[in-house]
Amino acid sequence: MMPWGHLAVGYLVYTVGSRVWYRRTPSGVGTLVVAFGTQFPDLVDKPLNWWFGVYDGRAVGHSLVTVVPLCVVVALAARRYGRSELAGAFSVGALTHLLGDSYGSLLSGEFGRVGFLLWPFLPAPTYPADSLLYHLERWEGQFRYLSSLSPTDLLTSGFGFQLVLAAVLFGVWALDGFPGVGTLWRLATRRRTADRRSE
Length: 199
Known about the structure:
The chain crosses the membrane at residues 59-78, 154-175. By secondary structure, the chain is mainly alpha-helical.
């Protein structure tokens, strides 16, 4: 799944959970944390693969054996500081990422392709060597290809469907009042103010 697909699934699950659990739209900080959580497994595993040539892009950060205990540690720390919502946001983001990367293989019965979920007890599958540049070039090619698709073909292509998911995400995020934007703005302006005072 692409980064925007992971973000869309994580945020959509999180906003539904916020409405059911807290009876409100997501908080700004919670939105930023769920966004980080949706990218966390790749932020761990992709650099290991691209820069150090280990684990083929899905292992440590994509394993339930490491992610679930990490979510428990985050929950314990957040509870101590009275920020349990943030632990939930991180867990939703990280776990929906794993689901997004494995649901197709699980549904089709190709269990060997999701060995990364139980790494190191099962070996992670071997993918072709790649790099950040490889991914960017592939995405650019996919965007060019989409222009030739009919709306029906667009929805049935994995890449196109994830773009539709991203559009749905934007619409729901807008209905929620764009949580996270104000939080980022306050953080940025507070930092600039602090930098000016220190000069």
